[in-house]
Amino acid sequence: MSKKRQLRFTMMSIALTMAAIVLFLLATLVDSFSTYGIPMMAAGLVLLVTSWAIYFFGERSAKPAKEEPKETVMTVIGCKNCDMREERAFVQGDYIFKDMGPCKKCSGSSYIKAIYAVPIKKE
Amino acid sequence: MVSIGQLFPIGNDTYSLIINVVWFVAFFVIILFFNQRMQIWTYQRNVENATKRLEKLAEKSREDALKTIKQFAPDNTDIRSQVTGFLDFFAIEPVDRDPYGVLNRLEHMIDDRQGRFKDFVARIEPNGSKIDRTKTEGVLEVAMSLNLIFKVVRHYLLLGKKTKSLMIFVQLDMQLPQIMKMAEAYYVAQDTFATGKPMGDGLGALVASKFINGAPTKPIAEDIIYSEIDISGRKAFVLKAEGPDFTVGKPGEAVKRLVEGREGKIARIIMIDAAGKLEGETTGEVVEGVGAAIGDPGPEKYKIEEVATKYNIPVDAIICKMDIDEALTTMKKEVVEASDIIVERIKKMIAERTKEGDTIIIAGIGNTTGVAQ
Ligand SMILES: [Zn+2]
Description:
Order of helices and strands of chain A: HHEEEE
CATH class of the largest domain in chain B: Alpha Beta
Oligomer: heterodimer
Number of helices of chain B: 10
Number of strands of chain A: 4
Low-confidence stretches of chain A: none
Bound molecules: zinc ion
Radius of gyration of chain B: 28 Å
């Protein structure tokens, strides 16, 4: 997200610099433009300054405004007797090997088998 | 028409000659003298942005720490000023110019520091349970680290500004990617610590608890418990830090006591720990080696090496590779899966390298937050 914006600012800055160089070259090298030499040079300078300004300050504004969580944490509940397996979101107070009472499938006792983080896929 | 000469217009009159000379001089002045200044500006801008980010992280982690503490603190106490003051708490490493007994002195210093932490948390969190308090210790540890990182980076930024030294900025800028990665990892880790989720570094503890699997446990050293179990005819002492507290305990002391308690009649010591991976290596890769696999500042590792050498006990190391931020934040799925692989590897290892009736030690190293036994 911010990478894209940063890239756009850089591209804009480069394009403006290129335009300024073209203006300078036209003003100095092409005879028929020589009457407008000074205004063209001035315009080129303005372009250069804008280009630098974008390069310097654009990056700052492109910083991410807020941080989104990058992962979800899952808790896996298993049983000591059967192959019951249940997965749900992590709740504070969960820990691995925590006793979770009787199993839903059989008469064995269930416990937290694993807790792990899975990255949230970006759309 | 186009002609190159027009790029450097040299008129006949002296007036235009002077203008040209002034132009060239100005050009060289800019190139020669402002060049470095411009480079300083560029580096300085990077460092300033990083410092701002670090300041924000330090501030946020302090606020989060306060939020965590507030849950267990009485309403009328001023925790803010106490915590802010405590963030600057420091510990001085022992002198190593005379290395005799330096690890004992280091251990003493670490114990002292840990004791002060515990006392401080007990004082501001009278309503918290033992687990809550150990979690708060971790949360405070993060806030302190971020506070220190921010202050050090700011110090060099201001020093660079004051001395206008390009080299200070270049050096700082070169290290920034690593510093920032570390700081961001710490910041994310704080939430993991506060909520008591198991962290990547808890891999060793997780493997040990899979061996213990509900068997009765006994305390053996500070914050360390062990269990005696049978693995295909061998007697195994499995030890880990006492979970689900936020603690690493003193596994070195525990191994030493177990070995000494049996007069050195231990066939093998197997250690399991998380280890930093190189860029390009995959998270959750399981690698075997020899030596004491433990990333403590020294004392615990030394105890294991010393007792293993004294009784000539081979020490096997099994490590699981992960990134520094993966070690500090919530355990990744790959790491959980690696723990099952390691359990199988150890069983195979025991069958291949020990005889029936042997006694072995399996030490799961790492912070056991969120992992009981
Ligand atoms: Zn069941």
